[in-house]
Fold this protein.
Amino acid sequence: MNDIITQIGPLLYPLLGLSLMGAILIVDRFIFFIRLPALHKSESYMALTTELEANKHLNKTVRDELMSFRLLDLQATLTHGLHFLRLIAILSPMVGLLGTVLGMIKAFKDIAGQTGPVVPAMIADGLWSAMLTTAYGLSIALPCLFAAFLYTRMAEKRLGLFQKHLNAQSLKIEGAQLND
């Protein structure tokens, strides 16, 4: 294990930083989504329905704009950190690839500096070392990308439910008969 850490080189630290930030965001969002109450028990939903009722004297267009405005705040809360998680998923392989390129340069420099015959083991050792950073970068990116997709989907679903129920309530204020 120590040999692998040594072989990765100086880009190990940025990769570890990206890995740590990604893990923190994944766990933070996991806890956030697990703790979300059912829609009808949600304080946000209760506040929005109360506000909708308090503004029932306004025409539907104004009420809908008000709800859209409030839903933007909810969207920001639900998607907090997801852009950064996607950024980590993009940057990690790039940092890994940079490490691979730097490792290849070093490997070829070492080979060029040989006065005797070049044996395949020298080339293989240099390539192996160079490829480690790309593998590490990809191993960071994949869970971050998956989590960002999953949490974005969960946020979209939650926002869709809010929108549907608030629209139904707004229509009922207008006198519409809805089959629930």
